[in-house]
Write a structure and sequence with these properties.
This is Ion-translocating oxidoreductase complex subunit B. With 181 residues, the chain is mostly helical. The chain contains six helices and four strands, in the order H-H-H-H-E-H-E-E-E-H. The chain has a two-stranded antiparallel ribbon with strand order 1-4. Strands 2-3 form a two-stranded antiparallel sheet. A hairpin with a 7-residue loop joins strand 2 and strand 3.
Length: 181
Amino acid sequence: MFDSILIFSILSLILGLLLGYAAIKFKVKGNPLVDQIDALLPQTQCGQCDFAGCRPYAEAIAKGEAQINQCPPGGQDGVDALAQLLDVETLLLNEEFGENTTDHVVVVDEQVCIGCTLCIQACPVDAFVGASKVMTTVIEEECTGCDLCIPVCPVDCIHIKETQQTLRNYIPNINEVTTHA
């Protein structure tokens, strides 16, 4: 009986090691085309394209299930970049999905805010700071201008603030850019 347990234990160990090796060796990596498409999208996660965020939209484009002109925050420049990447004819930005609104952020009128947190729940990029029954504010550097918070505000305390295009807000992750001598 002891011999049977020892044999089954050794077989289990060998099979476990083989499965572990196979999981590492044959691991399916993500589609590199999806990664390239996703890198060109503005990462606003606004859902205006009818997808839950930029990554699902990139996956749909790669599968041929979505057109390249459904991203208003990316604008016509984004459509043109996607067309160049995919080597397809460029399309005009489809206005059915909204307008390009990335030249602004939102701000909260703190005197009017009632702390309902509906804006926090609506924000796809967590640009709001606040808590229930406490004044809410916006982290402007995180705001992508998707405007999903405006219609949910019951007291209309969220307003649009135009932004100036600077190098800091034009280049994504500028803090990660390094120079090499």
